[in-house]
Amino acid sequence: MSVVGIDLGFLNCYIAVARSGGIETIANEYSDRCTPACISLGSRTRAIGNAAKSQIVTNVRNTIHGFKKLHGRSFDDPVVQTERIRLPYELQKMPNGSAGVKVRYLEEERPFAIEQVSGMLLAKLKEIAENALKKPVADCVISVPSFFTDAERRSVLAAAQVAGLNCLRLMNETTAVALAYGIYKQDLPSLDEKPRNVVFIDMGHSAYQVSVCAFNKGKLKVLATTFDPYLGGRNFDEALVDYFCDEFKTKYKINVKENSRALLRLYQECEKLKKLMSANASDLPLNIECFMNDLDVSSKMNRAQYEQLCASLLARVEPPLKAVMEQANLQREDISSIEIVGGTTRIPAVKEQITKFFLKDISTTLNADEAVARGCALQCAILSPAFKVREFSITDIVPYSVTLRWKTSFEDGTGECEVFCKNHPAPFSKVITFHKKEPFELEAFYTDLFEVPYPDPRIGIFTIQNVFPQSDGDNSKVKVKVRVNVHGIFSVASASVIEKQNLEGDYSDASMETETSFKSENKDDVDKMQVDQEEGGHQKCHAEHTPEEEIDHTGAKTKPTPSDKQDQLNQTIKKGKAKSIDLPIHSSLCRQLGQDLINSYIENEGKMLMQDKLEKERNDAKNAVEEYVYDFRDRLGTVYENFITPEDMNKLSAILEYTENWLYEEGDDQPKQVYVDKLQELKKYGQPIQVRYMEHEERPKALNDLGKKIQLVMKVIEAYRSKVERYDHLDPAEVEKVEKYISDAMSWLNSKMNAQNKLSLTQDPVVRVAEIVAKSKELDEFCNPIIYKPKPEIEVAEDKAKANSEHNGPMDGQSGPETKPDIKDSSQHTKSSGEMEMD
């Protein structure tokens, strides 16, 4: 089972994998651990990652980047309209009202949903992981900003489906950083001690996030999270771009913002300049050749000027820091460490603002770029049965308060309940009890619209179906479980009705006595709602904790919750006076993609992957022809020169030159089979020359090896004729067969060598190296079993054997472990002697 963590960034992506040695960030095909979040679409294929980034300037209208903020948003969303101004490619309204991109692909204008675009990127990251791990990748953990709403999170999950990934968890980026920090710490306080509070600050290319986490041994709890979704590295880039645009307008009389290609080049140069100023305080030059209208432009900037330009941006660093401390109810002295990640935290002025607020030094122990991906990989390893990871509990939070609204039986009457308050622990489940006679709807929405960076506060409408009055006409008691799951997504998980049974004997609903009722002002209101309490008697937002499977996902051990008690109670009721019946729930979620639409995206992604594969095979076939032309033409003037006649060389040179011209003219865009046929045609002319050269190079060694073997066998036969004791056990008839075989082999060898010596290098060889090697192998198989046949073992009395061994040495037929090695060693010695004589 693969264990993969993916940091799906605005500008760049990182992939981390769990291996036996620990967590490792893997590199792509360019040996770069950073993969740009870019997709470039062309007339035949797609380029994704590094290849696409190089086309941002050359293929402006069809290279998609900076699309992370478009997830889960409608086309009319103010954020989308703001991003639309920044982006060089065209955005389009999709049939379901969501934002999409319009690009030219396969010679036609085509719209793509953001889920499809992110799906393409995730599919590329999946391919990189599979190439590194050498096995299929399916399960993963993907990071998302902590401020993402339900609609945005569901959009990312849909993109993972399109890419063929099973996302085990959407993990908040700051939580992933906290896990990467805490799981390796050996000096954390024990569970009964005061926790260690650490602030994590993540300022990336497009957003700024701050979290405060409390650490105990084997436990991580997020206390509070704040953010500025509109402050990041690109804002600092834009400050430089605006400055130079104004300067160039005055100095060179050009309007850079009217030319998208020039503007993109300026963004790239300003990003480089920003990074240089982080390490240098002196004046730094900005030079761009052929910038616009064949003009070369130049300017300069230093860090002091830059910080003055970005003063308004730097002032936005402190408010989230102040807010997170207030929400966590902590003072500066309660903070043990401040950890920073994200590329923008490398700006000295940003570090200075953070240090100034906390009045202590910041820590840079974490890899600023890879910490999020490593944390995601650790979470995936915790969830995977294939890895044994140190037990570590992770409790995240709900970033926004969530409220439920429903209709009461009175005219225009509604009821509301805030089921999850801001910074509530997550994952978490609550059970709410309603008293109803008919099906009803629950509308979920974010309580405070001003704190949510999303124009629509709605989460969705959940219809509880099949609700009827009891047999005696009373309201039915409906228990509804609401949940914020491991992805941070709110849902109505289940609903059940408690049905009374007509049984004899005294009846009392004991289960309701432990619940605190939340009633309207009218005591006769039949639409009463009750929230099951964890400890009873609290306010309506403090409901029952039922984190069974959710908490298990984080690897924590949980004690039985009131939900478990309620389940046991339900079973008791079912046995006794009532029974619980599950009710169907119909969900209508805001900006939720239908499964049919997701399936169509998956199908389209498969078609595009196949098109990419076919195009790669076509390009490989074309490159093979081009490589053969250049390589063979180079060899014709060097190593192949003596193996081809002048006439054939002129003819072949002309064919190679024609093929080269053909490749760059009418052969530039041909089907794969045309290139395959062209290569076969070239090989028809070049193969004989190549064979003659290879045969000439390898033939001497093959002939020499065969000659040595013949000489060696002849030496053994001569020793046998001379009555050498080592060979006196050989069968005369078999030795005669060997002698005849060697004589024939010698004749064959001499005849082939004589015939070959009469030929010129431009003629095909009489005998091939393969034939000589086969003859040598045949000789070994025929002769070796006979001439190296071991002496038969003879049993001799032990005392006689000892006496002989003392006076005369080993007997000729003596058995034992010493005799066989002597035979092998002697044969090897004979071979060695033969080799020396041949030389």
Automatic annotation (TrEMBL):
Annotated keywords: ATP-binding, Chaperone, Cytoplasm, Nucleotide-binding, Nucleus, Phosphoprotein, Stress response
Chief location of this protein within or outside the cell: cytoplasm
Entry GO MF terms: ATP binding; ATP-dependent protein folding chaperone
GO cellular component: cytosol; nucleus
Pfam family, one: HSP70
Segments of this protein annotated with the region Disordered: 530-569, 797-839
Compartments where located: Cytoplasm; Nucleus
Highest taxon of the lineage: Eukaryota
Biased composition (Basic and acidic residues): 530-555, 819-839
Membership in a protein family: Belongs to the heat shock protein 70 family.
Function field: Possesses chaperone activity in vitro where it inhibits aggregation of citrate synthase.
Subunit structure: Homodimer.
UniProt name for this protein: Heat shock 70 kDa protein 4L
